[in-house]
Design goal:
The structure holds two protein chains of two kinds. Chain A is of the alpha+beta class. Chain A is built from eight helices and nine strands. Chain B is an all-alpha fold. Chain B contains nine helices and no strands. Classes of the chains: A alpha+beta, B mainly alpha. Chains A and B meet through helix 2, helix 3, helix 5 and helix 7 of A and helix 2, helix 4, helix 5, helix 6 and helix 7 of B.
Chain lengths: 334, 198
């Protein structure tokens, strides 16, 4: 068993009250003597458990608190000890121990006395009673075992549920990012709709003019108009990759010749102008972002499709404050 | 910082003992000693300790591969650990950090706290660390210090009930608690760290 002087030596080591030389000697002993090592581990655990319960005496409490300054991670040990004690207390409340029966003691005491016939008779009744009580206790014990098992299973289920919930939270966060991305894309689509509306109005005006014969269109305009070929595509990108950490896929038609990129500037960026590089090559400088209705800042840059790689591409945006953000995407030609 | 490679680990295990289960037992014991030895030093968080212990094992494995004969494995491991620790400290100082900086970072950033999350983590970690309900009960009973009776007597009774020697029970409980704490700290860290935007 450990002597009080040895315990004090261990405490001096654990509380960092020992000169370096002495520490080294003690450490050597830890490696040579496993009993000593586990004694030390146990002492630290017990000191922390007592501290966590508020039952560590004044001097040791002060010493332990002083050691926290040099071993801040011991705070986690204290917090773990508190959690462990809470759990132990909770479990005890669920299956409170049945008060130790002293029936057997009483019976044996009874037989130690000088017995009369009446005592023997009473003894027999007591034995019967003891058997019955024993049976009841056994039944009670069995029920408690079953209850404890049920409780354990419930706790395992709860832990599983917690894990599931955590996964669902992560999934929801990923969905939130996806919707934010799509909201940005919608803003761009709305702008495009406006542009198309304007074009449509112009064409309608031209048609009216033709019908009226007021303004004769030239021959080119009277030729049947071929279905439009998509040569320009618009892509909205957020800094980093795409949804849930995956790289953003950018589907474009073979006919697309240039891509209009809308890059959302990170909200925390304080820069006012930006330069843009594609896969390390400069494509634009001194770009000023445009503010959308929702207050987002969007940088617009148009890049010829032939400049893009068939595989992964990176647009690097550098602000005038020197901070860089990358926008990763992958082309998917259709 | 290099991590312990599977090959290095294999070599190390074969040197610890030819019997796989005994070697595993010795490895667990030595790893706990090395980790504790580091965390008992000034300003060595458990997260760093783990990496430094891997580095220690790596270097020992390199020496074994070079055919170096190690007489006292534990004493040798302790020496290598001290070298690794000194190098780490010097590197840290070269990078412009001092003890106070480490303290500030460790005390505030490394220790986020939420008792409910910690309790939830303890519950899930108990399921993960304890291999069955017996082990689960062992931890809870061994560290149940609320009772009025003396801790020593209580643990002695527990050892008798489990058919173990008191020292063997102490070792088992200490190892389980160490694993449990690593699991809890990791779980708390994960749950309190915001999901990074991609």
């Amino acid at each position: 068993m450990t002597e009080p002087s040895q315990i004090e030596e261990m405490k001096r080591y654990l509380f960092h009250e020992m000169p370096e030389k002495e520490r080294e000697t003690l450490e050597e002993r830890l490696f040579e003597n496993s009993d000593y090592f586990y004694e030390l581990v146990e002492l630290e655990n017990d000191l922390i458990d007592s501290y966590a319960r508020g039952k560590l005496d004044g001097k040791d409490r002060e010493r332990l608190e002083r050691s926290l300054a040099e071993m801040p991670e011991r705070r986690a040990k204290i917090a773990n000890a508190r959690a462990l004690q809470t759990l132990i207390a909770e479990e005890k409340n669920v299956s409170a121990p049945v008060a130790a029966s002293t029936l057997w003691e009483r019976i044996s005491n009874f037989f130690n006395l000088k017995m009369s016939a009446l005592q023997y008779a009473t003894g027999a009744v007591a034995i019967l009673l003891a058997c019955a009580t024993g049976f009841l206790l056994y039944q009670n014990w069995q029920e408690r075992q079953e209850f404890a098992e049920l409780q354990n299973r419930r706790q395992a289920e709860l832990a599983e549920k917690e894990k599931l919930l955590q996964e669902q939270i992560t999934e929801l966060e990923s969905l939130k990012r996806r919707f934010e991305n799509e909201r940005g894309q919608n803003e761009i689509l709305n702008e495009k709709i406006e542009e198309i509306d304007n074009q449509k109005q112009q064409l309608e005006q031209q048609l009216k003019n033709i019908r009226r014969g007021n303004n004769q269109p030239d021959n080119k305009n009277t030729e049947p108009i071929a279905p439009p070929t998509q040569t320009l595509a618009s892509v909205f990108l957020l800094p980093g990759g795409g949804r849930g950490g995956a790289i953003t896929q950018v589907p474009i038609k073979q006919s697309v010749r240039s891509i209009n990129f809308s890059l959302q500037v990170p909200p925390e960026s304080a820069a006012e102008t930006f330069s843009v590089r594609l896969n390390g090559n400069p494509v634009a400088q001194n770009l000023k972002p445009r503010k959308t209705a929702s207050g987002r800042r969007i940088l617009r840059v148009t890049i010829a499709a032939q400049q893009l790689r068939e595989t992964d591409n990176t647009l690097t945006v550098t602000g005038d404050d020197g901070k860089e953000d990358s926008y990763l995407f992958r082309l998917e030609k259709q | 910082m290099p991590t312990l490679t599977p090959k290095a680990f294999e070599l190390l295990m074969s040197r610890l003992d030819s019997d796989e289960s005994k070697a595993a037992e010795m490895y667990e014991d030595l790893r706990l000693k090395l980790t504790r030895c580091l965390t008992w030093k000034k300003n060595c968080p458990e997260s760093q300790a783990d990496a430094l212990v891997d580095e220690t094992f790596d270097r020992i494995a390199v020496k074994l591969a070079q055919g170096v004969e190690i007489e006292n494995f534990y004493a040798y491991a302790h020496k290598v650990l001290n070298f690794v620790w000194l190098e780490h400290r010097n590197k840290y100082k070269e990078d412009g950090y001092d003890d106070e900086t480490t303290l500030a970072v460790s005390a505030d950033a490394v220790f986020p706290e939420d008792p409910d999350i910690r309790l939830a983590c303890l519950r899930s970690c108990l399921v993960e660390v304890a291999k069955d309900d017996k082990e689960r009960r062992l931890i809870l009973d061994y560290y149940d210090t609320e009772e009025g009776e003396k801790l020593k007597n209580r643990r002695k009774t527990l050892a008798e009930r489990l058919g173990l020697k008191i020292n063997a029970l102490k070792v088992r409980a200490s190892r389980l608690r160490a694993k449990l704490e690593i699991c809890i700290n990791e779980c708390v860290r994960k749950r309190l760290t915001p999901v990074t935007k991609t």
